[in-house]
Task: structure prediction
Amino acid sequence: MKNLKTIILSTVFTLSATAAFAEPYRIGVLTDMSGMNFDLAGQGAVVAAQMAVEDFGGKLLGETVEVIVGDHQNKPDVGSTLARTWIDSQNVVAVVDVPTSSVAMAVQEITRQTDTAFLISTAGSSALTGEACSPSTAQWTWDTFAMANGTGRAMTLEGAKKWYFITVDYTFGHALEADTTQAVLAAGGEVVGSVRHPRETTDFSSYILQAQASGADVIALANSSGDTMTALKQMQEYGVTDAGQKIAGMLLFLTDVQGVGLDIAKGLTLTTAFYWDMDEQTREWSARYSERMDGKKPTMVHAGVYSAVTNYLKAAEKAGEASSGSKVMETMRGMDINDFFNRNAYLREDGRVIHDMFLVRVKTPEESRAAGDLYEVLATIPGKEAFASVENSACPLVKK
Amino acid sequence: MTMIFGVPLPALMGQLLVGLINGSFYALLSLGLAVIFGLLRVINFAHGAFYMLGAFAAWMLLAYAGIGYWGALVLAPLIVGVAGMAIERLMLRRLYGLDHLYGLLFTFGLALLLEGTFRHFFGTSGQPYAAPEALRGATNLGFMVLPNYRGWVVAASLVICLGTWAVIEKTSIGAYLRAATENATLVQAFGVNVPVLLTVTYGFGCALAGIAGVLAAPVFQVSPLMGSNLIIVVFAVVVIGGMGSILGAIVTGYMLGIVEGLCKVFYPEAANIVVFVIMAIVLLLRPAGLFGKDS
Result:
């Protein structure tokens, strides 16, 4: 009996050892599968990552590549534990997406320690490539500086000088407010006040009343997804724009605009890294994405995930090495990473992917011809102007 | 301008009114919870999901059947109420003899299931739902601009809350209900069909959540998460008011809405915890809640 047990155990061990040997490379999409970021990232990010792997041929350095999914529930502790387990025991070579900056910050500490590639698409705090930067990170899609700079600058120059902020009270909101304040001041505007609200607030009336009483020209929403939508809806109720104040959504995803409807969102100016209906390339990819997502249009995050995973696979193949994130990023810095998403793009030493951004205006219901027809592109913001310059970077990796 | 603690009086008045509006939702939701707990002794964790169901029913009636707000205000609570009764009859009923925890776990699981199902089909961004034509626009009250729809919410919820209270405290049906709460066996001995009474009460409690959902649809996003965002606060309201106390739920609902509103002016960062701080204090000083009877 004892012998039998030993045989079984040793067989199991041998099998698991061989299994570990032939384990495929895994790409871990760590995202929000249950909360308010589900539509703008979530399932779409998973599909985008899968598309990237399939288009690449499904193999990296001779091994199979798999996409696995984790739900971090927007909690830093859940996110970092999952990332740690993935990297330690499931051969995850790249962690992808990670909405919610506070979670991304926690995950970045793990990927830095383990030298694993971290491809950020949804998280937007500029601190991720600033003071907290890591050699194995690429922040692909957007950041708070770019949003602030695009929308904040454009609206101040148009004559909206006095700003009031309704800011969500965590890392991301603080960064967005600080970055926008800088952009507004630089363009000759001023900030007359701000109020902080908790995440997932259901009622913004109090904040809206305070903003209305401030005498500001612009009420800026430094928050995201569910919060932004609720705030927009309730600002219309309180007649904010009718009374002559402008609204600036500092971070609006395509799904947010769809969520509140064009009646409410019409006329908003916003900055985005990607819009599906820009040219042949974007339409072609978006059509393939829509086919797999019940006709839904991709957000900039989804396109960013596809582009990030594709370029990671290319760089890892070229570097001959998948598990050292910093080596893959080093190789990527010397590569051309332009595609349907990235225009005039390159990866900077602080981990920031520099590419063109776009200033767009939300169409009115009359202008919109079909379900996803939401934006009119007003201007292209060249990558160098869109993102913070490397000279002022707080990132210790930047050699000065 | 008159100032109170450094805040201009008009601003304060505005915040008080806003607090009253939020309090209306708290009161409506906690009322349903209190009714259900009072009679069934079930802690209905699915209440937030029924509230969400009410809002979605209104949206679906409009999107698929072309039935507008006023129709939805009647139909959606009916739909939610019937759904509640079916759940009570088929599932919840089997748990009455067991520990309270089973009811809690069952309704909690039910809430997750309902939310998950809606999230799967509709995503989390939510669906737009406009206020009815007659209630759009806003009225300038001098100290603030009050959206007409919000005024309607306060009025409607006051009428519903007081109506419910009157039915339970002043009518013979209410008397049966209260009697069954005290001693179900005895009431049954008098020929009252207690199981039906329980089913109808659960359905009614759920329908109240459904009404709150319809009222909320034009104000908040109609999203699968709308219930879970609100329900924790509502539970705190019920605990502060005293579990099962109808009047307690109503008064505490409005009161906490106002306290929260004031907190948003004086110290916004604490606005989402002030309710729980009050709950902790009340539990320390009066464990049965402000209006609860010590058992």
